[in-house]
Write a structure and sequence with these properties.
The protein is an alpha/beta fold. It contains 5 helices and 8 strands, in the order βββααβββαββαα.
Length: 207
Protein backbone atom coordinates (compact mmCIF):
# COMPACT_ATOMS: atom_id res chain seq x y z
CA UNK A 1 0.00 0.00 0.00
CA UNK A 2 1.31 3.41 -0.92
CA UNK A 3 -0.23 6.80 -0.20
CA UNK A 4 0.59 10.26 -1.47
CA UNK A 5 -0.70 12.77 1.07
CA UNK A 6 -1.03 16.41 0.14
CA UNK A 7 -1.94 19.28 2.41
CA UNK A 8 -4.58 21.28 0.55
CA UNK A 9 -6.60 24.46 0.79
CA UNK A 10 -9.21 22.76 -1.40
CA UNK A 11 -9.62 19.64 -3.53
CA UNK A 12 -12.36 18.02 -5.58
CA UNK A 13 -13.16 15.04 -7.78
CA UNK A 14 -15.10 15.27 -11.03
CA UNK A 15 -16.39 12.36 -13.11
CA UNK A 16 -17.51 13.44 -16.56
CA UNK A 17 -19.24 16.76 -15.99
CA UNK A 18 -20.30 15.99 -12.43
CA UNK A 19 -18.38 17.02 -9.34
CA UNK A 20 -18.93 14.11 -6.97
CA UNK A 21 -17.00 15.34 -3.93
CA UNK A 22 -15.02 18.29 -2.66
CA UNK A 23 -13.30 19.49 0.49
CA UNK A 24 -11.94 22.74 1.85
CA UNK A 25 -8.80 22.87 3.98
CA UNK A 26 -7.43 19.45 4.87
CA UNK A 27 -5.56 16.61 3.16
CA UNK A 28 -5.97 14.75 -0.10
CA UNK A 29 -4.93 11.08 0.02
CA UNK A 30 -4.09 9.24 -3.20
CA UNK A 31 -4.02 5.54 -2.31
CA UNK A 32 -2.52 2.65 -4.29
CA UNK A 33 -3.31 -0.89 -3.05
CA UNK A 34 -0.91 -3.75 -3.77
CA UNK A 35 -1.51 -7.49 -4.05
CA UNK A 36 0.51 -7.99 -0.84
CA UNK A 37 -1.54 -5.67 1.40
CA UNK A 38 -3.21 -6.99 4.55
CA UNK A 39 -5.56 -5.72 7.23
CA UNK A 40 -2.53 -4.87 9.33
CA UNK A 41 -1.40 -2.47 6.59
CA UNK A 42 -4.82 -0.80 6.56
CA UNK A 43 -4.69 -0.29 10.34
CA UNK A 44 -1.25 1.28 10.10
CA UNK A 45 -2.11 3.60 7.21
CA UNK A 46 -5.36 4.84 8.76
CA UNK A 47 -3.61 5.63 12.02
CA UNK A 48 -0.69 7.40 10.37
CA UNK A 49 -2.74 9.42 7.88
CA UNK A 50 -5.12 10.78 10.51
CA UNK A 51 -2.32 11.59 12.96
CA UNK A 52 0.17 13.01 10.45
CA UNK A 53 1.23 16.41 11.76
CA UNK A 54 1.32 18.66 8.70
CA UNK A 55 -0.53 21.68 10.10
CA UNK A 56 0.42 24.63 12.27
CA UNK A 57 -1.08 25.43 15.66
CA UNK A 58 -2.86 28.65 16.62
CA UNK A 59 0.51 30.28 17.39
CA UNK A 60 1.95 29.51 13.95
CA UNK A 61 4.18 26.67 15.15
CA UNK A 62 4.57 24.31 12.19
CA UNK A 63 4.31 20.52 11.99
CA UNK A 64 2.47 20.06 15.26
CA UNK A 65 -1.20 19.48 14.38
CA UNK A 66 -2.97 16.67 12.53
CA UNK A 67 -6.08 16.81 10.38
CA UNK A 68 -8.04 15.48 13.37
CA UNK A 69 -6.58 18.12 15.69
CA UNK A 70 -7.74 20.84 13.30
CA UNK A 71 -11.07 19.16 12.48
CA UNK A 72 -10.29 19.44 8.77
CA UNK A 73 -11.57 17.28 5.91
CA UNK A 74 -9.97 14.33 4.12
CA UNK A 75 -10.44 13.46 0.45
CA UNK A 76 -9.43 9.90 -0.46
CA UNK A 77 -8.91 8.80 -4.06
CA UNK A 78 -8.06 5.25 -5.13
CA UNK A 79 -5.11 5.32 -7.54
CA UNK A 80 -3.71 1.97 -8.69
CA UNK A 81 -1.00 3.71 -10.74
CA UNK A 82 0.91 4.30 -7.50
CA UNK A 83 1.83 0.61 -7.69
CA UNK A 84 3.59 1.20 -11.01
CA UNK A 85 6.86 -0.59 -11.78
CA UNK A 86 8.70 0.63 -14.86
CA UNK A 87 9.86 -1.89 -17.45
CA UNK A 88 12.07 0.32 -19.53
CA UNK A 89 9.76 3.25 -20.17
CA UNK A 90 6.53 1.25 -19.96
CA UNK A 91 4.48 1.26 -16.73
CA UNK A 92 3.71 -2.19 -15.36
CA UNK A 93 0.91 -2.61 -12.82
CA UNK A 94 1.10 -6.28 -11.90
CA UNK A 95 1.75 -5.34 -8.25
CA UNK A 96 -1.59 -3.50 -8.05
CA UNK A 97 -4.40 -5.49 -6.47
CA UNK A 98 -7.02 -6.56 -9.11
CA UNK A 99 -10.08 -4.31 -9.04
CA UNK A 100 -12.52 -7.04 -7.92
CA UNK A 101 -10.43 -7.49 -4.76
CA UNK A 102 -9.23 -3.91 -4.42
CA UNK A 103 -12.69 -2.33 -4.31
CA UNK A 104 -13.87 -4.05 -1.08
CA UNK A 105 -10.39 -3.56 0.35
CA UNK A 106 -10.53 0.16 -0.41
CA UNK A 107 -14.07 0.42 0.99
CA UNK A 108 -12.87 -1.18 4.20
CA UNK A 109 -10.07 1.41 4.35
CA UNK A 110 -12.67 4.19 4.03
CA UNK A 111 -14.86 2.65 6.71
CA UNK A 112 -11.94 2.49 9.12
CA UNK A 113 -11.10 6.12 8.38
CA UNK A 114 -14.69 7.10 9.17
CA UNK A 115 -14.81 5.05 12.36
CA UNK A 116 -11.54 6.56 13.56
CA UNK A 117 -12.57 10.15 12.74
CA UNK A 118 -15.81 11.92 11.83
CA UNK A 119 -17.64 10.13 8.98
CA UNK A 120 -18.93 13.37 7.48
CA UNK A 121 -15.38 14.71 7.11
CA UNK A 122 -14.12 11.74 5.06
CA UNK A 123 -14.88 12.16 1.35
CA UNK A 124 -13.84 9.98 -1.58
CA UNK A 125 -13.84 9.73 -5.34
CA UNK A 126 -15.44 6.99 -7.41
CA UNK A 127 -13.58 3.68 -7.46
CA UNK A 128 -12.56 2.53 -10.94
CA UNK A 129 -13.86 5.67 -12.66
CA UNK A 130 -11.93 8.02 -14.92
CA UNK A 131 -11.65 10.99 -12.61
CA UNK A 132 -10.43 14.55 -12.76
CA UNK A 133 -8.84 15.34 -9.40
CA UNK A 134 -8.34 19.03 -8.70
CA UNK A 135 -5.86 19.68 -5.90
CA UNK A 136 -4.72 23.03 -4.59
CA UNK A 137 -1.62 21.98 -2.71
CA UNK A 138 -0.88 24.16 0.32
CA UNK A 139 2.84 24.81 0.73
CA UNK A 140 3.35 22.69 -1.28
CA UNK A 141 3.37 19.85 1.23
CA UNK A 142 3.47 16.34 -0.22
CA UNK A 143 4.33 13.23 1.82
CA UNK A 144 4.70 9.64 0.67
CA UNK A 145 3.65 6.97 3.13
CA UNK A 146 3.97 3.18 3.15
CA UNK A 147 3.52 0.55 5.87
CA UNK A 148 6.76 -0.79 7.39
CA UNK A 149 8.25 -3.82 5.65
CA UNK A 150 6.96 -7.09 7.02
CA UNK A 151 9.44 -9.17 9.04
CA UNK A 152 8.44 -12.11 6.83
CA UNK A 153 9.69 -10.34 3.72
CA UNK A 154 12.58 -12.50 2.38
CA UNK A 155 14.55 -9.38 1.42
CA UNK A 156 14.03 -7.96 4.89
CA UNK A 157 15.08 -11.22 6.51
CA UNK A 158 18.22 -11.33 4.41
CA UNK A 159 19.11 -7.82 5.52
CA UNK A 160 18.55 -8.72 9.16
CA UNK A 161 20.61 -11.86 8.79
CA UNK A 162 23.49 -9.91 7.26
CA UNK A 163 23.35 -7.35 10.07
CA UNK A 164 23.40 -10.17 12.63
CA UNK A 165 26.34 -11.83 10.90
CA UNK A 166 28.30 -8.56 10.95
CA UNK A 167 27.58 -8.16 14.66
CA UNK A 168 28.73 -11.72 15.38
CA UNK A 169 31.95 -11.23 13.39
CA UNK A 170 32.67 -7.97 15.22
CA UNK A 171 32.02 -9.64 18.59
CA UNK A 172 34.24 -12.62 17.72
CA UNK A 173 37.06 -10.34 16.57
CA UNK A 174 36.81 -8.31 19.78
CA UNK A 175 36.97 -11.44 21.93
CA UNK A 176 39.90 -12.78 19.93
CA UNK A 177 41.89 -9.56 20.35
CA UNK A 178 41.08 -9.49 24.06
CA UNK A 179 42.32 -13.06 24.42
CA UNK A 180 45.60 -12.25 22.66
CA UNK A 181 46.20 -9.29 24.98
CA UNK A 182 45.75 -11.50 28.04
CA UNK A 183 48.13 -14.13 26.68
CA UNK A 184 51.03 -11.69 26.08
CA UNK A 185 53.68 -12.31 28.84
CA UNK A 186 54.60 -9.31 30.92
CA UNK A 187 58.17 -8.10 31.18
CA UNK A 188 60.20 -8.90 34.27
CA UNK A 189 60.77 -5.17 34.66
CA UNK A 190 57.05 -4.49 34.72
CA UNK A 191 56.35 -3.23 38.24
CA UNK A 192 52.76 -4.37 37.99
CA UNK A 193 53.83 -7.95 37.35
CA UNK A 194 53.80 -10.26 40.38
CA UNK A 195 56.58 -12.87 40.78
CA UNK A 196 56.50 -16.22 42.39
CA UNK A 197 59.01 -14.97 44.95
CA UNK A 198 56.67 -12.19 46.02
CA UNK A 199 54.02 -14.78 46.48
CA UNK A 200 56.34 -16.90 48.57
CA UNK A 201 57.32 -13.96 50.74
CA UNK A 202 53.72 -13.02 51.40
CA UNK A 203 52.90 -16.57 52.33
CA UNK A 204 55.85 -16.69 54.69
CA UNK A 205 54.60 -13.59 56.48
CA UNK A 206 51.29 -15.21 57.22
CA UNK A 207 51.12 -16.58 60.79
Amino acid sequence: MRAIIQRVTQASVTVGEEQISSIGRGICVLLGISVEDTQKDVDYMVRKILNLRVFSDENGKQWCKSVMDKQYEVLCVSQFTLQCILKGNKPDYHMAMPSEQAEPFYNDFLQQMRRAYKPELIKDGKFGAYMQVHIQNDGPVTIELEPPASSTDPKHLTKLEKQQQRKEKTRAKSLSESGREKSVPRSKDDPSASSGADGDVSSEREP
